[in-house]
Write a structure and sequence with these properties.
- This protein has a single domain, classed as Four Helix Bundle (Hemerythrin (Met), subunit A) (Up-down Bundle), CATH 1.20.120.
- The chain has seven helices and no strands.
- Helices cover 69% and strands 0% of the residues.
- The radius of gyration is 18 Å and the shape is globular.
- With 192 residues, the chain is mainly alpha-helical.
- It starts with a helix and ends with a helix.
C-alpha cells in the first residue's frame, strides 16, 4: 500500500468518525449565526421535509451490513440517506438566511461525506459481490429518474419496514429538525 493510499484511507476513517460530532458543531454554529425570517423558514421546508421523508423511507429498506439493499430509494440512488441529509442541511441553510452557511455545509460535505461514501463503497465491494453491477446501474448520489430493476431484489429487503425504520431510529431526524425550527422561532420571537 502506498503512502498516498494510506493517507486517503486514514482520512476516510477519520471522516467517518467525526461526521456526527461535527454535525452537532455545525448545528451550533448555525444557531448562533442564523438570521431567519418567516419567509426563509417557509422556503426551507421545500428541502427539509423531502430530506426527512427520504431518510425515513430509506431507513425502512436498509439492512445494514446484512444485505445489499437495491430496492425502494436504493433503486434510484446508492446513498439516499446522505442525499436526504443534504436536503435537510441545505434546507436549514436557507432557513438561516446566510449564504455562507450553505458554503460551509458544502465544504463539510466534500471533506467529510465524500470520503465516507467512498469508504463505505469499498466495504460494500468487499462484502457483496453484486455491488459492482449495482454501482454501474445506480448513481452514487444524484438519483436516476426511473428505478433500476435487479433480479431477485425483492427478496429480503424489498418492502418498506416500519420495524427497520424504528430500529435505525430515523425518527431522530424528524425530532432534530423540529427542535431546530423551534429554536429558530424562539430566537426570532425573543429578538423582537
Amino acid at each position: 500500500m502506498t503512502t498516498k493510499t494510506q493517507g486517503k484511507t486514514g482520512w476516510q476513517r477519520v471522516a467517518r468518525r467525526i461526521r456526527v460530532p461535527l454535525g452537532f458543531v455545525v448545528a451550533a454554529v448555525f444557531l448562533v449565526f442564523a438570521r431567519s425570517s418567516w419567509h426563509s423558514m417557509a422556503w426551507s421546508l421545500l428541502l427539509v421535509l423531502p430530506g426527512i421523508w427520504l431518510r425515513g423511507y430509506a431507513a425502512g429498506y436498509v439492512k445494514k451490513n446484512a444485505e445489499l439493499t437495491r430496492t425502494g430509494p436504493y433503486a434510484y440512488t446508492r446513498n439516499p440517506l446522505y442525499l436526504g441529509s443534504m436536503g435537510i442541511a441545505f434546507g436549514f441553510a436557507v432557513a438561516a438566511g446566510r449564504a455562507w452557511l450553505g458554503l460551509l455545509l458544502l465544504v463539510m460535505f466534500l471533506a467529510i461525506y465524500v470520503p465516507t461514501i467512498l469508504s463505505e463503497e469499498a466495504y460494500l465491494r468487499g462484502v457483496f459481490p453484486e455491488f459492482e453491477a449495482y454501482a454501474q446501474r445506480v448513481p452514487r448520489l444524484l438519483p436516476r429518474l426511473t428505478a433500476a430493476g435487479f433480479e431477485g431484489s425483492s427478496v429480503g429487503g424489498g418492502r418498506f419496514s416500519s420495524e427497520r425504520y424504528l430500529h435505525h431510529r430515523e425518527y431522530n431526524a424528524l425530532m432534530g429538525a423540529a427542535a431546530i425550527y423551534v429554536a429558530l422561532v424562539l430566537r426570532m420571537l425573543l429578538k423582537r
